[in-house]
Amino acid sequence: MKQTDLIKNAKLNLAYGSEEGEITALVYDSRKVVDGCAFVCIKGINFDGHDAAVDAAKNGAKVIVAEHDVEGLKETGATLYTCDSTRYALAFMSANWFGNPAEKLVTIGVTGTKGKTTTTCLIKSILEHAGRKVGLIGTIETIIGDEHIPAKNTTPESYILQESFAKMVAAGLDTVVMEVSSQALMQHRCEGFVYDLGIFTNLSPDHIGDGEHASFEEYLECKSMLFRQCKVGIVNADDKHCEDIVKNHTCKLETYGLSEKCDLRAVDMALDKEPGHLGVSFETKGLMDVKVKIPTPGRFSVYNALCAIAVCRHFKITEEDIQIALSNTQVKGRIEKVKVSDDFTLLIDYAHNAMALESILTTLREYEPSRLICLFGCGGNRAKSRRYEMGEVSGKLADFTIITSDNPRFEEPLDIIADIKTGISKTDGKYIEIPDRKEAIRYAIENGQRGDIIILAGKGHEDYQEIKGVKYPMDERVLIKEILEERKAGAK
């Protein structure tokens, strides 16, 4: 690619060197430098790419993009471009490198603290049922046709993002729906194109601390950036932070929610409860009138489905397509039902902090179970406060808690369990500790009673357990299957 084409709209200033010639590759990892490439210096938590600029040039990089000059770089003969943000520059250069593939797709970006994964999956399901070819980028995976790529970040680095868009175009897809994290917005990973539709689900304190956001105000501001980078914004008007999120928006706005003020609202909600099944039904009014029934419980499930409807109506989707898709979509690890008995309901959910655990347990309480059983553990090498808080929440809201292991990482599982017990001891909650997660699940299944709701919290979509730096295969669905097979074999 011509150098001049690569740097288009990237807001670069030529410090020295030539602007002419061809570029062989776009690189931001110094280990991947090749002869004739452009190397973009990215400052990360553990490594600053500026420190590798001179070596990159000596190893063949023709162009260096940096936020400041680097001592000894000029002597290598490389061209230096400077800019205010190399991440911003990388996003535009990546879009240029891959031929601006987002222009060939309908792009949908979903941001918010909770609901992103479920909402993106619902949107994908509805649109595909209606005949569109949809790619997905999110917390669990990137989906391009039949290819499923496990995710490292909720929203990948701009180069990977644009590469994924290009693969989607090559695969014949026409639409992409993606989760947009606050970190990605802060780090300009989503620059280089304008979203056709930008979505806001909700906002609550999260991702605040070292290596993330300095404050809730910064977290909110980063989320709000999406609405200065989309054509149409679709926002949850019931969320108390909605006005701040859209304060400086440049897009056309639509709202959804439960209140009368919303452009699309849900009415006549009713809980659906049958043996082994929990769901909710409702109707929409306003921009679209449709009756829907969804196989997941709770008010937040209504918000997720309502948001998906608000998005998909822009594609002139029929009521039938919406109804069928929503009634048949189950998202991995998000209030996921696993059939084990006609007597009780078993669910898997990713709730891995006190706020999420409180939300799911409160929701399940509304279904008036005979007993609400909560099985969970906490991750090692994370704030101990999370353990105390989750223990206290489960002790208050569950009838019985099964404390087990999650990802102990470099901590001892029993030490983590002891911290959880400290939290639960503040309540009158009854509990048992079973460190081995498979045995804990076995206990839950074997002791399940008619009318119980059992929630396996914390792992969700994860299919591994991290111990001492190693990720061992562990999928709760597989564990459940093994337990059921072992019980069946033992009964013979």
Structural features, described:
The protein has 492 residues and is of the alpha/beta class. It folds into 3 domains: 3-97, MurE/MurF, N-terminal domain (Udp-n-acetylmuramoylalanyl-d-glutamate--2,6- Diaminopimelate Ligase, Chain: A, domain 1), CATH 3.40.1390.10; 101-328, UDP-N-acetylmuramoyl-L-alanine:D-glutamate ligase (3-Layer(aba) Sandwich), CATH 3.40.1190.10; 336-491, Mur ligase, C-terminal domain (Protein-Tyrosine Phosphatase, Chain A). Helices cover 32% and strands 24% of the residues. The protein has 15 helices and 24 strands. An 11-stranded mixed beta sheet has the order 9-8-7-10-6-11-12-13-14-15-16, sandwiched between helices. A 6-stranded mixed beta sheet has the order 17-18-22-19-20-21, sandwiched between helices. A 5-stranded mixed beta sheet has the order 1-5-4-3-2. Helix 7 links the parallel strand 11 and strand 12. Helix 3 packs parallel to helix 5 (158-170), helix 4 (116-129) crosses helix 9 (299-312) and helix 4 packs across helix 10 (319-328). The longest helix has 16 residues, at 476-491.
Q: Tally of extended strands?
A: 24
For the residues shown, what is the average pLDDT? 95
CATH homology superfamily name of the largest domain: Mur-like, catalytic domain
Determine the CATH topology of the largest domain: UDP-N-acetylmuramoyl-L-alanine:D-glutamate ligase
Give the biggest beta sheet. Answer: 11 strands, mixed
Strand % is 15-25%
Give the overall form.
globular
Binned, the helix content reads 25-40%
Our count of helices gives 15
CATH class of the largest domain: Alpha Beta
Total discrete domains: 3
**In the CATH classification, which architecture of the largest domain applies?**
3-Layer(aba) Sandwich
Strand order, largest beta sheet: 9-8-7-10-6-11-12-13-14-15-16
Q: Which class do the helix and strand fractions yield?
A: alpha/beta
